[in-house]
Amino acid sequence: DAKTTQPPSMDCAEGRAANLPCNHSTISGNEYVYWYRQIHSQGPQYIIHGLKNNETNEMASLIITEDRKSSTLILPHATLRDTAVYYCIGVKAAGNKLTFGGGTRVLVKP
Amino acid sequence: GAVVSQHPSWVICKSGTSVKIECRSLDFQATTMFWYRQFPKQSLMLMATSNEGSKATYEQGVEKDKFLINHASLTLSTLTVTSAHPEDSSFYICSASIAEGTGELFFGEGSRLTVL
User: Fold this and answer.
1) What pLDDT score does A1 carry?
2) CA-CA distance, A71 to A12, in Å (whole number)?
């Protein structure tokens, strides 16, 4: 699976959009980009995933660059409950084994 | 979404004893479940992949005789930490896939083990 690189931490203001970057320059053609988040002392929660097209669901939007070497998770209107560690993970098609990196610790401030 | 439940959510035990943690998929069948361990302020580390009706596949460096995994049914996998020691104190988390070939996994709430 592709190695992903994320900033270790970032702050964002409540009510504003939070843009979380992820680099995955070694991603292969059949690898999806998955995003999970882990709120303190809880199990991770699936957010969204994509292959090459941008994706949107009720939680977030995922923007993947045309060369697929990086992506951005967008939380449109961050709330205090979005404070968590966000993980960007590359997963091969037909695979379901997740390897977690360091993630980005996001702190949403009032 | 699908629900995965772990029990117990926290446990304290004496050094040398064994502790069993259960992971259940409540509203779906999971042929594959995964066990992770997480130390404070660190990321999740995959320990093993649990397959219903067969032996678990352990990641490199994880002792299979120390961490016994049983996946006897499509809705239950158990992790037994044998002869626990203080260094085994950690947050243990399981996950399950609702379908093969997808990276969308459902995670349990985690079980915090403290070994005295």
Assistant:
1) 66
2) 18
State the count of interchain CB pairs (< 8 A) between A and B. Answer: 61
Amino acid letter for position B85: H
* B7: CB partners within 8 A, 6+ apart: B21, B22, B24, B111
| Residues with pLDDT less than 50, chain A | none
Strands A84-92, A61-64: pairing is unpaired
Mind listing the pLDDT tens digit for each residue in A46-63? 999 999 999 999 999 999
What separation in angstroms does the CA of B39 have from each of B31, B44, B71?
27, 8, 24
CB contact under 8 A, B110 and A42: yes
Q: What is the pLDDT of residues A85-94, one digit of tens each?
A: 999 999 887 7
